[in-house]
User: Which sequence fits this backbone?
């Protein structure tokens, strides 16, 4: 998700997200649509930062629909229907079944991927979210994490995932730096100045790209 032609203005996007967050996936797809529509004008550098919506979730996971039901009560099915409609608008279906687990290890894998390139990092984020939010896989599952890492060509993933301390300090520092003053995700910061909170439509991103590029002239 980055290039360096030298002829276009660079737009830097820092994204704070959680791999279990459906609106983060919708926001990701809307960001990518906006980037695709403006690629003739800008180069993009996108970096992903961790946020944990529920650090208390067990690693072995819990039933996803039941988890939503305990949190949202009678409005759960309406929420699921709204999510599926939003997912359909970006070309997917929301998977409300399966298990949902602690996302720390998924963020540690994203950290490792980022060290090997932002394109690899984005590929890992995409795959983790697709597995969790559309394929009803649990991103705390070791085999799911290893499958994602292999698909993205991440080196040293098995040793990294099996060491619970690998990347932990970095994740904690990132959460403190990028997540301490926000109440929810997704959260986008563009060129270190403009902020968008939530899953905005592509035109909102495009408008912000334009403002950011004008300021850098």
Assistant:
């Amino acid at each position: 998700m980055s290039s360096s032609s030298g002829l276009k203005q660079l737009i830097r996007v820092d994204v704070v997200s959680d791999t279990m967050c459906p609106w983060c996936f919708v926001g990701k797809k809307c960001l990518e649509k906006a980037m695709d529509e403006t690629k003739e004008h800008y180069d993009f550098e996108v970096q992903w930062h961790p946020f944990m919506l529920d650090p208390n979730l067990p690693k072995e996971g819990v039933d996803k629909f039941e988890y939503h039901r305990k949190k949202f009560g009678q409005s759960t099915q309406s929420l699921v229907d709204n999510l599926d409609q939003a997912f359909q608008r970006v070309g997917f279906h929301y998977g409300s079944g399966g298990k949902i687990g602690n996302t720390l290890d998924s963020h540690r894998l994203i950290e490792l991927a980022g060290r090997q390139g932002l394109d690899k990092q984005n590929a890992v984020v995409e795959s983790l979210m697709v597995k969790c939010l559309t394929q009803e896989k649990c991103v705390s599952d070791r085999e799911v994490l290893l499958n994602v890492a292999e698909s993205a060509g991440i080196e040293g993933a098995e040793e990294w995932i099996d060491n619970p301390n690998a990347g932990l300090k970095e994740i904690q520092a990132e959460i403190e730096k990028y997540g301490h003053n926000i109440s929810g995700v997704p959260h986008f910061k563009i060129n270190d100045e403009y902020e968008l909170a939530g899953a905005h439509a592509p035109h909102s991103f495009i408008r912000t790209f334009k403002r950011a590029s004008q300021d850098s002239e």
About this structure: The chain has a mean pLDDT of 95. The two ends are 23 Å apart (CA to CA). Residues 172 and 199 are 24 Å apart (CA to CA). DSSP finds nine helices and six strands in the chain.
